[in-house]
Amino acid sequence: MLSRRQSEWHHVVFPRRKMNLLKYLLGVFIFVLTAFCGMVSNAIPPLIINIPVVYRSVSFNGFVNLIIIIFWAISIYKSIRLYFNIVKNPKSWIANNLAYMIDTLKLYDEENFESIKNDKVVREKRIVRVIRIQYRETSKHVVVRILRDGDRFTKEATKLGENLEAALGLELDSTNKTVDYAEYVFLKHKDERIDLNSTVTNVNDSDEIKITGNISYELHKVPHSLIVGGTGSGKSFFILGKIVNYLKLTPQADLRIIDPKKADLSLLRFVTGFENKVATDANQICRILRETVELMERRYTEYFNDISAFGKTYRDFNLPIVIVIFDEFSAFMHSVDKKIAKEALDYVFTLVMKGRQAGVMIEILMQRPSADDLPTNIRAQMGFKAGLGAMDSIGYNMIFDTKNVEYKTVTEKGGGYIQLDGKHTSPVYFETPYIDKDFDFIAEIEKLMIQRAN
Ligand SMILES: Nc1ncnc2c1ncn2[C@@H]1O[C@H](COP(=O)(O)OP(=O)(O)O)[C@@H](O)[C@H]1O
Ligand SMILES: [Mg+2]
């Protein structure tokens, strides 16, 4: 655990404060202490005690002097240690590295000054303005704020992500911009891609799902998700991995698959237990959505219809979570006639607005985020949002409803940005759980279905 002191904001001082004054103070302290000890030693009256039995007198002055010398030595040792602790504080490595960055990037302004020394005009440069940087440390993050004071650093402040990453040697997790400052949040421990096998936490009653080493969430708290990404960005691998997770939950999730392009997901119709749960044509799709809405309404009348259900959710009744996975959502909306599109959209809207308590959720996958295809009122209810693959800022802004976030170019297959309600205040970079190329989804899903059926 970090102490309170460490979690407070610190200012980066540039140029680094010269420690001359401190050295001088240390010298003065040692001198005064030595003089004081000498005086004390001299001022003590002779301590001579006559011991009656042996008729001799014993002097204790040597003993007192020894104590004074020990006191003197310990004080000096402590003050020198304190001095070195202040000068080379190991915890201020952040301040040191940031000061070094200010220096190398010349994030300060100098002006020429003329002064007269010994009847000669001396020109010298003095620092008149320095970028203002603050930082704060928590157990998992280092947070750096560049203050925006209206000088030339105000613009610079929002463009320092890469330089800060290099200066601190830490991975940038998220950024945030206000009128007053630009904030950069760094991970102290690098986030790691995990293997699909380690994504479900097999603890009783837990519906926790791990996405990466640092990111995990409880399914019931983050209902409804939106996954966006172009072809080849890793959407199918991500969702197939999630399906494997969902089937490992207790009670096992009840899944319904919508795949209007008859692609990867539609193959699940050959798996026992999925026969009536995979839809590929428009009528089937509307039927599956309608049936799911009906199931949700039934749950409300059966379980949530009187006062005893107050504050309860589907988990209190041990009901399985129902998840509709809707692939190629925007392609579907464009390929069907308006009436069917409206019908489907109405069902989706109902599920999104009312599904949470009853344990009915929807996952929408699409290639391009477009405000027309997925209305804001639906998007706003998505607690889990991910954008995979390379994307322009318009795309990101549409998914995450945030602006002023610095995104790096995604090159890794399955890499992208994610934002979870209640976890992230702005999108963070992540990589989907890694899946070996020999992994046989259909076989794995078949196995899980049979295991649970018995
Ligand atoms: N999590 C992952 N682990 C391993 N390989 C991946 C992962 N995600 C994507 N890939 C690779 O990228 C390719 C395209 O991914 P895919 O999920 O089919 O993209 P999309 O469905 O978005 O078109 C896959 O065939 C696979 O080789
Ligand atoms: Mg795909």
From TrEMBL:
This is Cell division protein FtsK. The chain crosses the membrane at residues 21-41, 53-74. PROSITE patterns: FTSK (PS50901). One of its GO terms (biological process) is cell division. Residues 212-397 form the FtsK domain. Pfam families: FtsK_SpoIIIE. SUPFAM superfamilies: P-loop containing nucleoside triphosphate hydrolases. The keyword Transmembrane helix applies. GO terms for molecular function: ATP binding; DNA binding. Keywords: ATP-binding, Cell cycle, Cell division, Membrane, Nucleotide-binding, Transmembrane, Transmembrane helix.
